[in-house]
């Protein structure tokens, strides 16, 4: 593995810093500990007697590293699909410097002991900074009450659409969690009873096999909306903090449109790149490649989600990165597992969307770096600020006008993505994690330097503004 990291203080010249709503020409100094020591729009204050490593940004955009708070890295238990090492390599190759991994592994991350085991798995192996959700079950309320808000990003609640004890669908199961959870609750909102009815109808209609084009009708908008309404009602009743994951439909967005929600700062929502890039017309071409839960829905839903990015209704972008081997996915509809691998391409996809829709690079940084850091209370990350960890991504313009998103190769263990063949005017030139180069376009990924994330402000009484 080629060495492209530094041990000296790092000086960054000649970059366009995209941070806190602005794009400015500037310079940056990172100290030996991996913290940002100085940010300036003039000239750095350097000691002539000291040695520095110097990077000339050559007019590249410098962004705070992406924080992806919604990934499934499959480790432990499903490591033939992906593991912490492989999927974090894909992360840094895409400018993602921190991730929060979901609990539906084997064993499930539903106890503090399982959480400690996952943290040990990541130490020394992860190329990006890491944290792990604690999953809610019908039997682990004591574990939820006792979890440490300093090390857990949120409680993950599968309100349906899961397996085993992590599937909670009844209000009497859900209410104690909303009442007692000491920190933010992040929910997957679908209604299994509605999905089951829709699936039975589809089986009757298509006895020879359900086509993938039926996915959006089986995992319907009604299924999502009913579940979101329940989650919001319980969050209000028990004064819990709620973050609804992977919104996919316009009717869901309407439930978050009340300005009072924004002012109260206790209920928020996320969407994912695949809901912004695909719609149900794409099932005929992509088939299994875009089967995910919740389902990708109509063109009107797609456009409503894009509009919600502009208006600020959607607060964060998460990938829901969920690798499966293509051999597992290339099956009939009912046996093809749901999930899309995308973490390596999410930032470039969002920059591409920003240019197309007139959103602006600062808004992409807000959605993918600033807002996740605020919402989850991540300590000293998500911004380019003095005293913060130097988690940075250099984005360069393609000299030939455009290149394929996967022109450097797919780092995810599964080796495929529905975004194969998509062009971008930009590419990830370099990713810095904790002040060390974790990825170079010319040299690939470097030695793992990720650290465990720490949290301060994701507690129950915190407010997301």
Characterise the protein shown here.
This protein is of the alpha/beta class. Helix content is 30%, strand content 21%. The chain has 15 helices and 19 strands. The chain has an 8-stranded mixed β-sheet. It has a 6-stranded parallel β-sheet with strand order 8-9-10-11-12-13. Helix 3 links the parallel strand 8 and strand 9. Helix 14 crosses helix 15. The chain starts with 9 loop residues before the first strand and ends in a 20-residue tail after the last strand. The N terminus is likely disordered.
Total helix count?
15
- Give the fraction of residues assigned to helices: 25-40%
Give the uncertain stretches in residue-range form.
1-6
What proportion of the residues form beta strands (DSSP E)? 15-25%
Mean pLDDT: 94
Query: Class by helix and strand content?
Result: alpha/beta
Q: Please summarize the sheet with the most strands.
A: 8 strands, mixed
* Rg over CA atoms: 21 Å
For the biggest β-sheet, the strand order reads 3-2-1-4-14-17-18-19
Strand tally, please?
19
Distance N terminus to C terminus?
Answer: 42 Å
Q: Outline, from the CA principal axes?
A: globular
In short:
With 465 residues, this protein is an alpha/beta fold. 30% of the residues lie in helices and 21% in strands. The chain is built from 15 helices and 19 strands.
Key phrases:
single chain; about 475 residues; alpha/beta; six-stranded parallel sheet; 15 helices; about 20% strand; disordered N terminus
């Amino acid at each position: 593995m080629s060495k492209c990291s530094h041990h000296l203080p790092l000086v960054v010249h000649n970059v366009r810093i995209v941070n806190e709503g602005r794009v400015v020409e500037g310079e940056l100094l990172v100290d030996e500990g991996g913290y940002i020591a100085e940010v300036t729009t003039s000239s750095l204050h350097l000691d002539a007697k000291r040695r520095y490593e110097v990077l000339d940004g050559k007019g590249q955009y410098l962004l705070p590293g992406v924080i992806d708070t919604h990934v499934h890295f499959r480790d432990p238990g499903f490591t033939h699909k992906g593991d912490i090492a492989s999927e974090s390599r894909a992360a840094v190759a895409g400018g993602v410097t921190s991730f929060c991994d979901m609990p539906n592994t084997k064993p499930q991350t539903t106890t503090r002991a399982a959480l400690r085991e996952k943290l040990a798995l990541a130490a020394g192996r992860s190329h990006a900074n890491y944290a792990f959700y604690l999953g809610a079950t019908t039997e682990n309320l004591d574990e939820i009450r006792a979890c440490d808000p300093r090390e857990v990003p949120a409680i993950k609640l599968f309100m349906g659409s899961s397996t085993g004890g992590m599937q909670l669908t009844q209000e009497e199961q859900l209410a104690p969690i909303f009442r007692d959870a000491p920190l933010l609750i992040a929910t997957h909102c679908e209604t299994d009873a509605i999905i089951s009815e829709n699936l039975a109808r589809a089986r009757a209609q298509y006895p020879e096999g359900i086509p993938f084009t039926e996915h959006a009708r089986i995992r319907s908008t009604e299924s999502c909306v009913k579940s979101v309404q329940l989650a919001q009602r319980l969050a209000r009743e028990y004064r819990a903090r709620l973050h609804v994951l992977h919104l996919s439909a316009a009717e869901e967005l309407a439930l978050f449109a009340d300005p009072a929600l924004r002012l109260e700062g206790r209920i928020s929502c996320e969407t994912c790149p695949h809901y912004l890039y695909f719609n149900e017309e794409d099932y005929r071409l992509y088939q299994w490649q875009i089967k995910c839960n919740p389902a990708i829905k109509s063109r009107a839903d797609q456009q409503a989600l894009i509009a919600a990015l502009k208006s600020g209704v959607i607060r964060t972008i998460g990938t829901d990165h969920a690798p499966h081997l293509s051999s597992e996915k290339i099956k009939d509809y009912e046996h093809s597992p749901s999930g899309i691998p995308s973490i390596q391409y999410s930032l470039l996809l969002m920059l591409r969307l920003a240019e197309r829709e007139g959103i602006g690079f600062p808004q992409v940084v807000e959605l993918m770096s600033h807002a996740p850091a605020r919402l989850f209370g991540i300590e000293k990350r998500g911004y380019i600020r003095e005293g913060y960890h130097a988690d940075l991504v250099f984005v360069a313009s393609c000299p030939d006008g455009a290149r394929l998103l996967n022109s450097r190769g797919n780092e995810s263990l599964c080796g495929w993505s529905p975004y194969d063949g998509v062009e971008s005017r930009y590419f990830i030139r370099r990713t810095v994690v904790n002040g060390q180069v974790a990825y170079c376009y010319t040299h690939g990924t470097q030695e793992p330097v990720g650290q465990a994330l720490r949290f301060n402000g994701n507690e129950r009484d915190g407010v997301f503004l």
